């Protein structure tokens, strides 16, 4: 384990971690048996391979780039809602989230995220998406399978990207349902990058070493950021601030990576997140979050930082 991961994994309270690093990684996992049982049922539901995808002809007949993510009424996790207590009621998770977001925090969003391995992405599609910063494959997935989000890597971004005009009053909680090695599209986190507040995607990042980046906010501010790769075992859980940069490379293993992704939002009461946000040097919300898409949602910027590593 790297020194960085160790320091994030100690018993430092979640609020202090969030102020210092923009992330809090749980030392204790959530119940691995419950995670494995859920994973088995998710895997049994469909073939996570080329059969997920439309053919090139089907896609080109009517390209749909938006509305292709899980939504109420089309979300695989809805079917397993009574099985999620191992995450949502785990005392150490509830305690840390309560410290940050207050006792009346809400679940803004929850879904299954799948990192699709190269061998499962049809050749025609791989050619089209090469170099895109955000490879959310929802547009190319058969409509009945759009109850899960499928990624073939996503460049460094803030989860604020999906929430124009909303303050960073929410956190992302990620849970691995099986061991995630360097080859299984682990999350790459740039620690401390929340400190510059909300910034426009694609982000201004220059790699300065094997694990370091210079990050500029486009307003004259800059910082050095340490990169942390979140490999972890079944039940590994981590949280990050809505302004913390993170991303994934395409899954390099021969099987998919399946995780749970929660967005958790602050309740009405003052909470630890207010103390975190008081330390930020940049805006807490953005009127525009990204410049990489055309009006119809098609990618028009083709470059990528995280894949340089
Ligand atoms: O799981 C991934 O590959 C990326 C997930 C991510 O950053 C997100 O869903 O916001
Ligand atoms: Fe994200």
Secondary structure elements and pairings:
Elements: H1 3-8, H2 14-21, E1 23-25, H3 32-45, H4 56-61, H5 76-79, H6 85-88, H7 91-101, E2 106-115, H8 123-129, E3 134-136, E4 149-157, E5 170-176, E6 187-191, E7 204-209, E8 212-216, E9 222-230, E10 237-241, E11 246-248, E12 257-265, H9 272-278
Parallel strand pairs: 2-4
Antiparallel strand pairs: 1-10, 2-12, 3-4, 4-11, 5-10, 5-12, 6-9, 6-11, 7-8, 8-9
Helix pairs in contact: 2-9
The structure holds 2-oxoglutaric acid (AKG) and fe (ii) ion (FE2).
The site of 2-oxoglutaric acid has 10 residues, from strand 2, strand 4, strand 11 and strand 12.
Largest β sheet strand count, sense and barrel closure:
12 strands, mixed
In N-to-C order, the SSE pattern is HHEHHHHHEHEEEEEEEEEEH
Low-confidence stretches: none
The radius of gyration computed from the alpha-carbon positions, rounded to a whole number of angstroms, is 18 Å
Structural class: alpha+beta
Strand content: 15-25%
Distance between the termini: 19 Å
State the helix count: 9
Q: What percentage of residues falls in helices of 4 or more residues?
A: 10-25%
- Name every ligand kind in the structure: 2-oxoglutaric acid, fe (ii) ion
Count of strand segments: 12
Mean pLDDT: 94
Oligomeric form: single chain
General form? globular
Tell me what you see in this structure.
- The protein is α+β, with helices and mostly antiparallel strands and 309 residues long.
- 22% of the residues lie in helices and 24% in strands.
- It is built from nine helices and twelve strands.
- It has helices spanning 3-8, 14-21, 32-45, 56-61, 76-79, 85-88, 91-101, 123-129, 272-278, and strands at residues 23-25, 106-115, 134-136, 149-157, 170-176, 187-191, 204-209, 212-216, 222-230, 237-241, 246-248, 257-265.
- Strands 1, 2, 3, 4, 5, 6, 7, 8, 9, 10, 11 and 12 form a twelve-stranded mixed beta sheet that branches.
- Helix 2 packs parallel to helix 9.
- The longest helix is centred in the N-terminal third of the chain and has 14 residues, at 32-45.
- The mean pLDDT is 94.
- The protein binds 2-oxoglutaric acid and fe (ii) ion (FE2).
């Amino acid at each position: 384990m790297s020194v960085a991961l160790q320091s994030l994994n100690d018993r430092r309270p979640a609020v202090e971690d969030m102020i210092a690093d923009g992330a809090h990684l749980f030392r204790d996992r959530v119940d691995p048996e419950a995670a494995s049982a859920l994973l088995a049922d998710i895997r049994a539901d469909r073939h996570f391979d080329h059969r997920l995808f439309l053919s090139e002809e089907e896609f080109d007949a009517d390209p749909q780039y938006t509305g292709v993510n899980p939504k109420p009424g089309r979300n695989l996790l809805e079917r397993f809602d009574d099985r999620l207590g191992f995450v949502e009621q785990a005392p150490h998770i509830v305690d840390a989230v309560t410290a940050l977001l207050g006792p009346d925090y809400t679940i803004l969003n929850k879904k299954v995220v799948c990192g699709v391995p190269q061998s499962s992405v049809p050749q025609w599609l791989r050619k089209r998406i090469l170099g895109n910063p955000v490879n959310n494959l929802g547009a190319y997935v058969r409509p009945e399978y759009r109850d899960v989000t499928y990624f073939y890597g996503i460049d460094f971004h803030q989860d604020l990207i999906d929430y124009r005009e909303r303050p960073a009053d929410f956190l992302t909680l990620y849970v691995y349902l099986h061991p995630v090695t360097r080859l299984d599209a682990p999350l790459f986190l740039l620690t401390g990058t929340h400190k510059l507040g909300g910034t426009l995607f694609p982000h201004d990042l220059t790699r300065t070493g094997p694990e370091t980046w210079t990050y500029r906010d486009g307003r004259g501010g800059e910082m050095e950021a340490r990169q942390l790769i979140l490999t972890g075992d079944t039940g590994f859980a981590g949280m990050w601030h809505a302004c913390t940069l993170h991303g994934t490379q395409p899954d390099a293993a021969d099987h998919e990576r399946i995780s749970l992704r929660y967005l958790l939002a602050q309740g009405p009461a003052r909470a630890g997140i207010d103390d975190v946000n008081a330390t930020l040097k940049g805006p807490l919300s953005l009127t525009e979050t990204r410049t990489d898409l055309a009006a119809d949602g098609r990618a028009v910027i083709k470059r990528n930082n995280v894949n340089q590593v």
